[in-house]
Automatic annotation (TrEMBL):
Residues 186-307 form the Fe-containing alcohol dehydrogenase-like C-terminal domain. Residues 10-175 form the Alcohol dehydrogenase iron-type/glycerol dehydrogenase GldA domain. The keyword Oxidoreductase applies. It comes from Streptococcus lutetiensis. Keywords: Oxidoreductase. This is Alcohol dehydrogenase 2. Belongs to the iron-containing alcohol dehydrogenase family. The keyword rRNA-binding does not apply. PANTHER family: ALCOHOL DEHYDROGENASE, ALCOHOL DEHYDROGENASE 4. GO terms for molecular function: alcohol dehydrogenase (NAD+) activity; metal ion binding. It is an enzyme of class 1 (oxidoreductase).
Length: 309
């Protein structure tokens, strides 16, 4: 039997962030802890998210101290802010860093304890506090998955949590929030998305539905990533990449990943490197070995990339 996890509601496409206020009002939530990073907090992206909240008189408090590799300290500070301000739901805004921090905050808010208590698989007993997850990059898919990663500063280890109770209530992928990404970040985050799609296809946990999602993601990345890098304001390309990360995220959320991510997480923890960069560096090395054992699967990868096999 296969179990397929996905958020209940997913807003995808140009301008969808403008709709979040009406959705949240419909859910009946009153006050959000809005979690992001320093860059987003100072950018023009934050007002695009707070405007629809203000329009519906939804209160919020901003916590913007999330590190590029979110830490136990970030999570515990965010949880304290949530409790001090009486927030009844959380909004995550950014790349995988705020998304992962929020997953941990959400679980701790309803289950108690510390982040270390939930390392590995399905350790929580209660569904996390409701989360509206808004992505600003085309890479991590953290806004739609049951996986999150928190760095234990003392052990210098990235703790990987897989927890069905951390799945967000609603994801938001609006390409208009991504046009300001520089070429380097567009490339790096999109290679993380490509890694998701390839690893989810190669992993022993893949099955018919996830394989189709993986191949679809690879095809979209192959066709539209060059355009998104060449012109960040190419909204057709940005929107196609949004669809690619959604497909790839749903694939690995339900099939699993592999050695590339296992190694990349620890490289990031020890050397303080961006996760997407670690994946890009590790992907060809690992898959060169995997191809020796599942050659037929890599023919599907090659086809998705438009190569003749």
């Amino acid at each position: 039997m296969s179990v397929f996890y996905a958020p209940a509601v997913n807003l995808i496409g140009r301008g969808v962030v403008k709709e979040i206020g009406s959705y949240i009002k419909g859910y009946g939530y009153k006050k959000a802890l809005l979690v992001t990073d320093h860059f987003i907090a100072k950018s023009g992206i934050l007002p695009k998210v707070t405007a629809p909240l203000d329009a519906e008189n939804i209160d919020y408090v901003v916590y913007s101290d999330v590190d590029p590799n979110p830490t136990v300290k970030n999570v515990e500070e965010g949880l304290a802010a949530l409790k001090e301000n009486g927030c009844d739901f959380i909004i995550s805004l950014g790349d995988g860093s705020p998304q992962d921090a929020v997953s941990s905050i959400s679980i701790l808010a309803t289950n108690g304890g510390r982040p270390l208590d939930y390392e590995v698989v399905h350790k929580s007993e209660k569904t996390g506090l409701p989360v509206i997850a808004i992505s600003t990059t085309t890479g991590t898919s953290a806004e739609i998955t049951i996986n999150y990663v928190i760095t234990d500063e003392e052990r210098k280890v990235k703790m990987v949590m897989v927890d069905k109770n951390s799945l967000v209530l609603m994801s938001v992928n609006d390409p208009e929030l991504m046009v300001s990404m520089p070429k380097s970040l567009t490339t790096a985050t999109s290679l993380d998305a490509l890694t998701h799609a390839i690893e989810a296809l190669v992993t022993p946990g893949a099955y018919a539905a996830t394989k189709k999602l993986s191949v679809g993601a690879i095809e979209l990345i192959k066709e539209y990533l060059p355009r998104a890098v060449a012109d960040g304001h190419d909204l057709e390309a940005r929107e196609a990449m949004v669809n690619a990360i959604f497909l790839g995220g749903m694939a690995f959320n339900n099939a699993g990943l592999g050695y590339v991510h296992s190694m990349a997480h620890q490289h990031g923890a020890v050397y303080h490197l961006l996760h997407c960069v670690c994946c890009a560096m590790t992907l060809p090395i690992v898959e060169r070995e995997n191809a020796k054992h599942v050659l037929a699967t890599f023919r599907d990868v090659a086809k998705g990339l438009g190569l003749h096999t």
